[in-house]
C-alpha cells in the first residue's frame, strides 16, 4: 500500500503506542493505537533480536509499566520485518512514557545498529466496528490488514462495517489512523490460534460489496507472536 507504514515518522520503542477501547461519546475516554515496524539490516534477525532483547531488559530495569507486543511478519512482502506495539493507554498516558531520554539512548545503542525504522502510526480504536476490548489476545497468529480508503468515504465505510458488527464471530479489532501516513486509513487485527483459523475466518467474514467499493488499496499480512520479544503481555500492564 502506498505510504502506509512507509512514510510514518520513525520513533523509539516508547513512542509506538496503541491505546485501548474508546467509547463513542466524546465525553468519555477515547483510546488510540500506535504501531511501529522495524526491518533488520540485511534480514539479519539474529543480531537484531539480540539487540531488541537487550532493549526490553532496559524497559524492565527502568520499571516500565506498559506492556509491549512483538510480532514477526511471517507472510507478506515485508516478511521478516518486526511489528511492535503497546496497548491499553489513555491519551494522557502518552505524555508520560518511561524515561524518554534513556529509552532513546538505549534504542540507539541496541536497535538502530541492527535495524531501521520502517515507520509508526497513531490510531484510534473503533469499538463500534470491533469485537474485543482493543487489547488483542496474545494469540500465536494475527491477520494484519491495512486498508486505504477512497477520499471522503470514512463515514460510509464505518456505517457499513457497524451494520455488520453483530455478525463478527471472533476477536476483530479496528483502528482508525490519526497520524503517520496517508488517510483515510484503517488497521484491522484478527488474532487467531493457527493459520488454519485465519483461513477459516476469511471465508466466514468477507467484506461486503459495499465495503469493497470504498477500499482503494488493501494489504493483508500474517504476523507470528513472539513471546520472548514481548514485554509484560498478559500481566495486566497498561498505560492507564
Search tags:
single chain, 28% strand, Alpha-Beta Plaits, 8 strands, disordered N terminus, alpha+beta, 240 residues, 5 helices, eight-stranded antiparallel beta barrel
Structural description of this entry:
This protein has a single domain (13-228), classed as Alpha-Beta Plaits (2-Layer Sandwich), CATH 3.30.70.100. 22% of the residues lie in helices and 28% in strands. The protein has five helices and eight strands; from the N terminus they run βαββαββαββααβ. The protein has helices at 45-61, 100-110, 154-164, 195-204, 209-212; strands at 32-40, 69-75, 82-85, 115-125, 141-149, 173-179, 185-192, 215-225. The chain has an eight-stranded antiparallel barrel. Strand 6 (173-179) and strand 7 form a beta hairpin. The longest helix has 17 residues, at 45-61. 41% of the residues are buried.
Concise overview:
With 240 residues, this protein is an alpha+beta fold.
Percent of residues in helices comes to: 10-25%
In whole angstroms, the N-to-C terminal distance is 33 Å
Number of domains: 1
Please give the count of helices: 5
* Beta-strand content: 25-35%
Mind telling me the CATH class?
Answer: Alpha Beta
Helix/strand structural class: alpha+beta
Mean pLDDT: 85
**Biggest sheet layout:** 8 strands, antiparallel, barrel
Record the strand order, biggest sheet.
1-3-2-8-5-7-6-4
Task: Kindly identify the CATH topology.
Answer: Alpha-Beta Plaits
Evaluate the radius of gyration. 17 Å
Could you give the order of the helices and strands?
Answer: EHEEHEEHEEHHE
Number of DSSP strand runs: 8
The assigned CATH architecture is 2-Layer Sandwich
Ranges with pLDDT <50 over ≥5 residues?
1-12, 14-27, 235-240
Gross morphology: globular
Amino acid at each position: 500500500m502506498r505510504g502506509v507504514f512507509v512514510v510514518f515518522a520513525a520513533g523509539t520503542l516508547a513512542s509506538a503506542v496503541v491505546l485501548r477501547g474508546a467509547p463513542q461519546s466524546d465525553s468519555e475516554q477515547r483510546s488510540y493505537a500506535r504501531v511501529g515496524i522495524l526491518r533488520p539490516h540485511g534480514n539479519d534477525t539474529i543480531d537484531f533480536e539480540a539487540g531488541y532483547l537487550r532493549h526490553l531488559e532496559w524497559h524492565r530495569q527502568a520499571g516500565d509499566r506498559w506492556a509491549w507486543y512483538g510480532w514477526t511478519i511471517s507472510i507478506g512482502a515485508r516478511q521478516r520485518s518486526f511489528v511492535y506495539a503497546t496497548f491499553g493507554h489513555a491519551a494522557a498516558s502518552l505524555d508520560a512514557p518511561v524515561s524518554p531520554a534513556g529509552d532513546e539512548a538505549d534504542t540507539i545503542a541496541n536497535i538502530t545498529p541492527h535495524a531501521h525504522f520502517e515507520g509508526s502510526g497513531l490510531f484510534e480504536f473503533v469499538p463500534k466496528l470491533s469485537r474485543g476490548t482493543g487489547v488483542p489476545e496474545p494469540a500465536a497468529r494475527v491477520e494484519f490488514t491495512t486498508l486505504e480508503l477512497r477520499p471522503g468515504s470514512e463515514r460510509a465505510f464505518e456505517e457499513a462495517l457497524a451494520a455488520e458488527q453483530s455478525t463478527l464471530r471472533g476477536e476483530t479489532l479496528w483502528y482508525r489512523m490519526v497520524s503517520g501516513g496517508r488517510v483515510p486509513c484503517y488497521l484491522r487485527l484478527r488474532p487467531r490460534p493457527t493459520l488454519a483459523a485465519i483461513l477459516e475466518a476469511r471465508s466466514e467474514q468477507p467484506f461486503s460489496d459495499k465495503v469493497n467499493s470504498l477500499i482503494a488499496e488493501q494489504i493483508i499480512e500474517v504476523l507470528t507472536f513472539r513471546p520472548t520479544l514481548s514485554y509484560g503481555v498478559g500481566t495486566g500492564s497498561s498505560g492507564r
